[in-house]
Amino acid sequence: MPSLRQAALALYPRLPIAAQNALCTLEGLRRRWWRYGGRQPEWEAFFREAASWPEDRLRAYQDERLRAVVAHAAARVPYYRARFREMGLEPGDIRGVEDIARLPVLTREDLRRHGRDLVAEGWPRGHLWFHPSGGSTGMPITIVTSREAMEMEYGFYWARRRPGVTRRDPFATFTANPVVPAGQNRPPFWRDSWATRQRLYSVFHLSERNIPAYVEDLNDRPCAYFQGYPSAVVTIAQWILRTGYRFTNPVRAFFSTSEVLQPGWREDIERAFHCRVWDQYGQGEAAGSVTQYDCGHLHVDGDYGVVELWPVGEEDGLVRAEVVCTTLHNLAWPLIRYRVGDLVLYDPRETCTARPFGPVIRRIEGRTSQFFTLPDGRRITSLMGLSIHCRNARSIQVVQERPGAIRVHVVPAPEFTDADRDHLLGVFRGRLGDEVGIEVVLADRPILTPAGKFLAIINRVPASGS
Length: 466
Hints:
Strand content: 15-25%
CATH class of the domain at 162-278: Alpha Beta
Structural class: alpha/beta
Number of strands: 21
Radius of gyration: 22 Å
């Protein structure tokens, strides 16, 4: 029997806009309770203080927390209890980060197959949220988030990731929440969460015809900051720069999330909106973090998690490394040596006077965003909100070779059925509309670039035809 929330989501597209705003507000209240209803202020104070720790204190803290996480995993997490037994590993064998290589590596396929066995025994069921993720990578998995981990996350969020703004400020988001029905072709292409002072803009309705409505609304509404997909925000910014529109709203910042901030995008967004762009790297799995600080550099957040950088190559004198993360705080679903699938570039010789230890990350690679276009000119820049709702797929990619049509390239899991294929097609139709041609193709392996890189969106339309 569907829950009240599931029933409301099914009814949502048929409701009047005022009722949709009311449901967005209720969802905002639900999330606010999860994020701020408990120890969030304590975590925020902790992370503000930890930002000034010297290296020796940070390393000691990492060692202490890693020992605690490993002991907890061995005692209460079925997956790790079995893995440690297979390896003959005792929790006491891990004295700190120097011993981390003795621990087993966790992959996304492990999460897909064993995700529930990674949940700690005895954790209150009402404090766990099982939700889909992987839309930006095209590799869907189910993430388990505890209320306690959410409180920690939003303590870190406000201590480090949102400089210059507060929780009380009005803001705008550009994410893949399907807040505007796919068939709507007139403004408003946004909905409101009144309780959180948040306006949610649809990323599924961006087209040359619709962008002026976005710009006028962004310019007229009081707003302290934007956050969300940089591919959506830069699309609007480039329209402003191309048309010479005079944007006068004093926005303080844009916080880039969920996608890689591509070269040139920062400059376009800052020129169009006259605000500073802040970058960050994290995952829904909440295992590791990299944040841009006042110095302008991206730094690994060692008090959030242990981040290993496994070298896989070089580019222009920089080391290209795979990101491997270990949580220090999420005891409900502790991910240890988790291979996220993303890459970074860094120079091991480079230092920063503001944060003199740890690598300076030059660039993050991984969740890069291309786009595909729909027959009415809308540009879709992310699979988030699409692939996260698809079932039993190891990877999902969209390939566009001609305007108005796409091919959904699916690597199915063994349990994938015809019903899963029909469900996938229904998800894409529901988000993109009936006008676009959609072909679903099952394959043994994903499409990779010549460099071996996975892209969730592959656009092969000649420039003159896009």
